Amino acid sequence: MTKYYADRVRVIETIRNLLKHDHLECNGGAVAIRLSDGNMMMTPTGAAVRRWQIEPEELVVMTMKGEVVEMGPYPSAASTLQCLQILRSFPAANAIVHSHSQWSLIYATLGQSIPAAITSFDRYGEVPCIICDDKELKSRFKAAPWSVELPEAMLQRPEVAAVGEWVSSRVADLMAPRADELAAHGLAFTMYRHGVVVFAKSLERAVQDLTAIEANACTAYRTALLTAVANP
Fold first, then answer.
1. What is the pTM of this model?
2. What is the CATH number of domain 5-230?
């Protein structure tokens, strides 16, 4: 696994920085990048459970069809199909960070968009929430399965792929009109009761934007809370 070693180290270093700033925790998340040869590198399933203490060789490399190129002891994360479809739909995007960051997660749990609360966030606009009842959709799929794409590299759970396919189709529809913004900054959305996803032209840009989203979400939430207290 030496062909992609520099990229593997870069992703691992990014994970360490995300942990340092409390953007990753043990309930889930994922990091994915588009490689220079067009393949995708992604964190493995269970990385969060192992407290993100993963090694470079554990990262999974796959084609844009989800076929395994290089894989360590674990298949890729549950959001594999979602990441693949986002990169396919947005050629200018080269990195994705999915996080359960605490302030974004509050808005995701409420099923609300994150408003632009501070001036530095105005260019991003609201971060929309995609409403998808994960439990309900998986139950519906198990009761009456439909055809879904199931990448070879990911854990072979079609009901999980069904959720990823549903969410990514909504992302494509919702974000397509804003695709030109990827030249300047990343695009982001939250998933109902799940977390935030940022995709950008580079991994560094995605991390920077996630940090901005969290700072803005923290201010927005505290402002709303203080307003409610002042105006009972």
1. 0.94
2. 3.40.225.10
